[in-house]
Amino acid sequence: MKLVERSEWKARGPRGVTRLSSTKGVKVHYTGGRVDPALATDHGRCDDAVRGVQNGHMDGNGWADIGYSMVVCPHGYVFMGRGPLVLPSANGAGLNSGHYAVLGLVGASGLTRPSDAMLNGIVDAVEYLRDKGNAGREIKGHRDGYATACPGDALYAWVRRGAPRPVTNWTERLVNELPEIRAGMTHTHVKTVRALLHARGFPPADLFSHTYAQNDEDLRGRINAFKKANGLAQDGIFGQKCWETALA
Ligand SMILES: [Zn+2]
Ligand SMILES: [Zn+2]
Fold first, then answer.
1. Strands 211-212 and 185-186
2. If you measure from the C-alpha of residue 91 to the centroid of ligand 1, how many angstroms do you get, rounded to a whole number?
3. φ/ψ of residue 220, rounded to 5
4. What does the alpha-carbon distance between residue 202 and residue 127 come to, in Å, rounded to a whole number?
5. 149-172 confidence digits (pLDDT tens)
6. Residue 19 Cα, ligand 2 centroid: separation in angstroms?
7. Domain 170-247: CATH architecture, name and number where available
8. 49 C-alpha to center of ligand 2: Å?
9. Which ligand sits closest to the CA of 28?
10. How far is the CA of 32 from the centre of ligand 2 (A)?
11. Rounded distance, CA 35 to CA 151, Å?
12. Cα 131 to Cα 108: distance, rounded to the nearest angstrom
């Protein structure tokens, strides 16, 4: 677990601490407001965001501390909130001794979809609270037993599925990031295509060029031969299906 201690995110000290010895489990939350989408690509902003939540809870709500037991950023870091064996205050009156409260740093607008790293981080936080805080097996959403949209539809659907760790399909992820290679373009992955065609038995004459020229009949012919062998339309384009097939 990528734990960020309170001293590391420069948390304010709590005005008071109420202990508890165990809970039935954990409730998952989102911020309810807008989360800046820039957060998704800049972990440097995350401690600022967590401090903002704490300030809102202490100064706005008048709570003793940030209301959550732990906070998970889009990069999967787990920020220590009130922590294990301490009563949270984010679940709603009467519901705080039942469950720890874990915030996923997504909101109702802006950044709304939890990343795989965030989902893994939430599971890390749940396991930590079970280990250090005697949390029971339940994983619920804030809306369970309380009138709120929290934790938002995306996180709630995941909670209802049992909060599984995301399955990483490396080929699928890689293919989603690879460009469609077509005649007339220069791209570093034109060279990748040449190497893959070579590896798959359709070697181009030039293995090293980054350019797929409009009149490059050699490369077009190799791509089409590869596509024909794999039941794909021979249009001279090396797209997603080709990447999937060549990398499988
Ligand atoms: Zn909530
Ligand atoms: Zn982050």
1. antiparallel
2. 6
3. -55, -45
4. 50
5. 999 999 999 999 999 999 877 777
6. 28
7. Orthogonal Bundle (1.10)
8. 9
9. 1
10. 18
11. 13
12. 31
pTM comes to: 0.72
Report residue 245 as tokens: 């097939």
Question: 158 CA to middle of ligand 2, Å?
Answer: 20
At residue 232 the predicted structure's pLDDT band, cuts being 50, 70 and 90, is very high
| Ligand that lies nearest to the alpha carbon of residue 50, given by its number in the listed order | 2
In the block, which residue shows the tokens 């202490």? Answer: 58
N residues, the chain: 248
Q: Domains of the chain: which residue ranges?
A: 2-160, 170-247
User: What is the whole-number distance in angstroms between the Cα of residue 45 and the centre of ligand 2?
Assistant: 7
pLDDT digit string, tens, across residues 13-31: 999 999 999 999 999 999 9
Strands (E) across the chain are located at 2-4, 23-29, 34-35, 70-72, 77-80, 99-104, 109-110, 135-141, 185-186, 211-212
Distance 47 CA to ligand 2 centre (A): 7
Ligand nearest to the CA of 77: 2
By DSSP bridging, strand 109-110 and strand 34-35 are parallel
Does the domain made of 2-160 have the CATH classification 3.20.20.370? no
Bridge partners (DSSP) of residue 4 are 79
Quote the ligand 2 centre to 73 CA distance (angstroms).
4
